[in-house]
Amino acid sequence: MLSSPDPLAEVFPRQAVAWELDQPRRVHLVGVGGPGMSAIAIALAEMGHTVSGSDIRERQLLDRLRASGVTVHIGHDRRYVHDADVVTYSTAIPADINELDEARKRGIPTVHRSEVLGAICRRTNAYGVAGTHGKTTSSSMLMLMLAAAGREPGFVIGGDVADVGTGARWSDSGTFVVEADESDGTHLRLPLAGTVLTNVDVDHLDNYGTFDAVIEGFERYIDAVEGPVVVGVDCVVARRLIGGRNVVTFGTAEDASYRAVHIEPQRNGNRFSVVRDGETIADADLPMRGRHNVLNALGALALAVELGVEPSVAAEALETFGGVARRFDVRGVTDGATLVDDYAHLPAEIEAVLASTRESTSDWSRVVAVFQPNRFNRMSEISDQYASSFSDADLIVITDIYSSGTQPIPGVTGKLVVNAILEAHPQLRVVWMPKRESLVKFLAGELRPGDLCLSMGCGDIATLPDELLMARGNREQGIAQ
């Protein structure tokens, strides 16, 4: 494990490469099908660069890349890099993969994706959204607020924004929104003119080594931003980062610069008012459930207003926000049971999503929470922290771990999460379903009219609603309760 607050520094040292994106380049991306890499590929192609990429298998996302002008290869081959000016890769790519080896032998610069994303940001005024939770949603909201104000922003976001149908777009407007991912230290390599820091929680200890190193990384991040820094002070750890720094704050706390007040859950969202320095500057109707999404919206609005967007314009942009893929994504109804999919995979995220199902406007008879733990190393570090995350569920189903490229660890399985929940809350009904076939069969027989089946995780659990619809022979489309 690494103790550096910049986990890239030791594994992928910064290279002094003689290239920028100030003229047309031929860029090859190894692992182009990943969510972060595919977004970068689209942005590069729309900038006018010649872009190619490789991935191990065919998937629907690759058709979108091809439509954007990216040449996509299935499999990895040395010849794919022969005419490249630069070859880029993500942390998930093995250092000895043949394409990277061939590029090094030919003297072609090989750079981590963070360097390419940084080069994109240097071509514009880039505004980042960082934090452990809420980055994708908040950056999507910020982008739409800037668009509503006529700024025509480009963006690279880690999920498809429903309103525009993509997670990336380039614009010559001089305004760019980027999701500043801390998982591998990418956030530390982005030149930014402003940022939102949503919150700071325990994650990615396999890269950082300690939570203190995670915190130090976020400190370095906000210190490097040249423009407004907006920090969520409902998060105790994020609040501690303020120190003597000149920052703008947001939250429900009395001392926040931007406060969300009079929060009223609605059937499919929240209504709230925004107060700045004691004055109500906007009223918002947000079509997203959960208090956590109120905070996501508030942070985005605070930065937008600091950048000169009228508060009413920013609030109006929220009213039509269509959400982000895999964020309380209603996938269908089968025999009266509503199937919803969500990306939540950390303890606080799961707790927040499940809490939103218990708001006063909810009328599901039961909440069935299905969770697929992610990464062996993550579960070895924090499986016990899931103990109280599922208290708002009536039935909890835990699957085995989705590896996400990590190596198995003896004794580390999804059963660790089951044990943690039952030790803390023995009265809860928890079912251990390590096999996917058994999981689908169990849920197909268990779900009944009025149930909400909420599948959560960042692995292949995303396809579970489709599998259940198929298993029950019912493709009726539903609407969120």
Brief descriptors of the model:
481 residues; alpha/beta; Rossmann fold; UDP-N-acetylmuramoyl-L-alanine:D-glutamate ligase; Protein-Tyrosine Phosphatase, Chain A; 3 domains; ten-stranded mixed sheet; six-stranded mixed sheet; 16 helices; 31% helix; globular; disordered C terminus
Question: What do you see in this structure?
Answer:
This protein folds into 3 domains: 8-118, NAD(P)-binding Rossmann-like Domain (Rossmann fold, 3-Layer(aba) Sandwich), CATH 3.40.50.720; 124-319, UDP-N-acetylmuramoyl-L-alanine:D-glutamate ligase; 329-471, Protein-Tyrosine Phosphatase, Chain A (Alpha-Beta Complex). The protein contains 16 helices and 21 strands. The strands form 3 sheets. The chain has a 10-stranded mixed β-sheet, sandwiched between helices. A 6-stranded mixed β-sheet has the order 16-17-21-18-19-20, with helices on both faces. A 5-stranded parallel β-sheet has the order 3-2-1-4-5. The longest helix has 16 residues, at 291-306. The two termini are 44 Å apart. 31% of the residues lie in helices and 23% in strands. Residues 11-18 and 475-481 have low confidence and may be disordered.
Helix proportion range: 25-40%
CATH architecture call of the largest domain = 3-Layer(aba) Sandwich
CATH-defined superfamily of the largest domain: Mur-like, catalytic domain
Radius of gyration: 22 Å
- Low-confidence residue ranges: 11-18, 475-481
The helix tally amounts to 16
Main beta sheet, described?
10 strands, mixed
Strand content: 15-25%
Task: Report the top-level CATH class of the largest domain.
Answer: Alpha Beta
CATH topology of the largest domain: UDP-N-acetylmuramoyl-L-alanine:D-glutamate ligase
What is the end-to-end distance?
44 Å
- For the largest beta sheet, what order do the strands appear in spatially? 8-7-9-6-10-11-12-13-14-15
- Into how many domains do the coordinates divide? 3
- The coarse overall form would be globular
Question: What is the average of the pLDDT values?
Answer: 90
For the secondary structure, the number of strands is 21
Pairing-aware structural class of the strands and helices? alpha/beta
